[in-house]
Amino acid sequence: MRENLCILLLAKYIQLLRRQMIPKKIHYVWVGDKPKPQFVLDCIATWKKFLPDYKLIEWNNESLKSIKNNYTEEAFRNKKWAFVSDYLRLYVLYNEGGIYLDTDVEITQSLDSFLHLDFFSCYEKGEGNCYYPVTSAVIGAEKRNSIVYDLLKQYDDIHFENPNGLDLETNIIKITRYFSKKFNLLPPYNGTKETYLTNNSIIYPSNYFCTPESDMINFAIHHFSGSWLPSHSRKDKLKIFNKIILSRFIKLRDTGEPQLTSKEKIVFNLPVSKTKKYVLIIKE
Q: What SUPFAM superfamilies would the database entry show (predicted)?
């Protein structure tokens, strides 16, 4: 009896190995001109601890030189690193397959049990128990996956720089729109249950890869460090011939300077409080 059980378990394990669709690759993006803070290094250390036989691949400034996409090139030129990452994570998953992780994701146990899938992610839990359909912080996919292909195609014919300004639509909006049209995944989302997009493509509950819950299974924690977020919010109060701009900046976090486009220069700063200042900008 025991021998038969061992044979059955071994057969299932061999079947799982043969079925492995997602390669043991961890992709992450680090673009820009800043070194990784200790928090990011600590998160990466957990990947190495729990995924020791996975290949870690960093996609950085140098990697972008071989990738041709108008949206990404324009986002990079404007130092909007989050938007560069939005495209890059999909590009690498489609072309190589593997698991993409944001750099503020902590791994808590092995991800081997998901490698037989075509695609996986989880719901993302927001404020007030509100859920988003798919977190972009943890995505696993086989090479040439059709879902990743569809998400990637959204960037083919759009520009980050437009006549009316920069396209600051977040990837979560693009992802939500896609899943609502393709899979009729509509709010309110039940982020506590599994959603099967296909027989082998699954959106897991948020406690799997995003927000841990007491006495519930967890594989990763998304810490939402906001390292990709701008340090200031901006509102243009006055424009003269679209060349001279008076903008109000409000500080969102302790570090970082107001971000400008590549053609803008600050000529005057007027702080009005610890978190608010007005800035006169000239556009070339």
A: Nucleotide-diphospho-sugar transferases
CATH dotted code for 2-222: 3.90.550
Range with top average pLDDT, 50-54, 183-187, 211-215: 50-54
Residue burial 209-232, b: 16+ Cβ < 10 Å; e: rest: bbbbeeeeebbbbbbebebbebeb
On the question of pLDDT at 228 being above 60, the answer is no
Domain chopping of the chain, boundaries: 2-222, 232-283
Looking at every residue in the chain, the average pLDDT score rounds to 87
What local confidence, expressed as pLDDT, does residue 121 receive?
Answer: 97
Give the type of residue at 277.
K
How far is CA 284 from its chain centroid? 32
